[in-house]
Specification:
- The chain is built from eight helices and seven strands.
- The protein is α/β, with parallel strands linked by helices and about 290 residues long.
- Strands 3-2-1-4-5-6-7 form a seven-stranded parallel beta sheet, with helices on both faces.
- It is globular.
Length: about 290
Amino acid sequence: MSLSGKTLFITGASRGIGKAIALRAARDGANIAIAAKTAEPHPKLEGTIFSAAEEIEAAGGKALPLVLDVRDDEAVKAAIDKTAETFGGLDIVVNNASAIQLTPVSQTDMKRFDLMHQINTRGTLACSKHAIPHLEKSDNPHILMLSPPLDMKEKWFAGHTPYSIAKYGMSLVVLGLAGELRKKGIAVNALWPRTTIATAAVKNLLGGDQMMQQSRTPDILADAAHAIFSTPSRELTGEFLIDDTFLASRGVSNFDHYRVDPSVSLAPDFFVPEDSVPPCDMGPVKG
């Protein structure tokens, strides 16, 4: 199924995973609202909503750059309403915007916890809430959270409880909202990477250049998201999907082209359940 003519509202789409999802949809001829805070170039981060819009247009899509802080409820509603007004409706919402700080409770400033909670959990809830009236009019409506499976193990919290609470909060929205919207035919799902993904967050906060080499590119999540959006909404909802496992269920068998450096082993991401078996070898590519 092509996303031609479909309208997507993507938070945090000025760079990284959000932009990759936008570009994949743009190649089909989709309309994309780029809802993010970066309007001016950042000294340490690539991309703005305007540079992302140029890339989306060049890829074949239509772009609407919107300066948005998802913590501002009124601004969220206005941005979503403007998206629907500009493109004549809304079909897909991607809650990708997220804040991260991997510190234990004793070393976490409460203002930082509030920021993570307000962006991750509350922002996801607000964007989803204000999109519902528009999504009800779509013939294949989807809400997607870039958030982890609800695998409630101590190891996923110890060492970074504040971040884990905020990130799991996004997944709790999936759990409840999927049930709330099932009868309306609005799909609500979560998508999470098995491995680290080559983004600014991984480079700057997790492991520098070495971990970037052990990562997959954002394209794997973009392709997985495209496959989700191409599925009838009444057939796929309330699921916590791992990128490569879901793509494998859709017939993908070769994942090597997603690697940044095929000569090194892939680094596993946080929050992936132990019983989730990868569909391919995580070690170096041989040959």
